[in-house]
Amino acid sequence: xxxxxxxxxxxxxxxxxxxxxxxxxxxxxxxxxxxxxxxxxxxxxxxxxxxxxxxxxxxxxxxxxxxxxxxxxxxxxxxxxxxxxxxxxxxxxxxxxxxxxxxxxxxxxxxxxxxxxxxxxxxxxxxxxxxxxxxxxxxxxxxxxxxxxxxxxxxxxxxxxxxxxxxxxxxxxxxxxxxxxxx
Length: 183
Fold this sequence. Notes:
The chain is an alpha+beta fold. The protein is about 20% helix and about 20% strand. The protein has helices at about 30-40, 80-85, 125-130, 135-140, 150-160, 180, and strands at about 10-15, 25-30, 40-55, 60-65, 100-105, 120-125.
């Protein structure tokens, strides 16, 4: 095999055999996966054909690993630009564009608007400039979805609509994207 071992990440499943996250997909480097195997923290569910070895040991690289202990998910995900865009489907909530995304304070900061899940929406740069520091009513621009605090499950569900560019065959049984997206 000519590909280097760097191209063999392991899909990480929680103890319930569901990925820790869908977007970004929970992947560990082969080094981290092997370290966790040797420390007894994970079980190997599936392996690549690729073998790594030392002078005294040989092992196939894990392609899917499962944590031995269940990791409780946080109730409320961190407020980050990425998570906001994911919540809003990577589209401007004013015009539907997917280009040049920013975030907009629905209640402008100059009027006391906070930077929080309930007051921020995804906006393309053009719509953000057009709305400016005005209220939606003043600008006659209303977000398609009222800003809300998503749960981790909401974000995971949204992440299923955006499968990664590469999915190893051994991962497919543990991922739940639409079949036409995977082909």
